[in-house]
Amino acid sequence: MSAPTPSTLPIVLADAPVQKDVVIAALGAAAALGGFVLVFLGIVFSALGGFPGDTPAAVTKSFKNSAKAMLAVFVISLVSVFFSGLWLVLGSGDALFVANIGIFAGLLVALVVVAIWVSTELMG
């Protein structure tokens, strides 16, 4: 039996992106999201640094907790970039591809959760 060609595959499969395209997209998206998180982390650090040294810990606690949560998301984005780069360097591998996409999906979930949590923490 010969290998399927794009003309013999169903339309959905014929137009599906190859793994390399998906990994490159995940690499770029994870790096961009990490950059955005880093910018907002800098804003939180600036706000935190604007408090006088004798500010009660209860006042700065929400800023510190927000910074820790945002830093965790930034680290997840770096891990996602690492796995994407590793997959590209090694050439392929289904297990590494699935891990890469799983980590990227986790990054998206963590970003949404932290964005909601930080918003309620700092605004509420």
Provide an overview of this structure.
The protein starts with 10 loop residues before the first helix and ends with a helix. It contains four helices and no strands. The chain is elongated. Helices cover 80% and strands 0% of the residues. The mean pLDDT is 88. It is an all-alpha fold. It has helices at 11-14, 19-49, 57-90, 94-123. The protein has one domain (17-123).
Structural features:
124 residues
Outline the biggest β-sheet. none
Uncertain runs are none
Distance between the termini: 64 Å
User: What pattern of helices and strands is seen along the backbone?
Assistant: HHHH
CA radius of gyration is: 20 Å
Number of helices: 4
Report the helical percentage: over 70%
Tell me the strand percentage band: under 5%
Number of domains: 1
Number of separate strands: 0
How would you sum up the global shape? elongated
Overall average residue pLDDT: 88
Structural class: mainly alpha
Question: What are the SSEs and their pairings?
Answer:
Elements (H helix, E strand, L loop, with lengths): L10 H4 L4 H31 L7 H34 L3 H30 L1
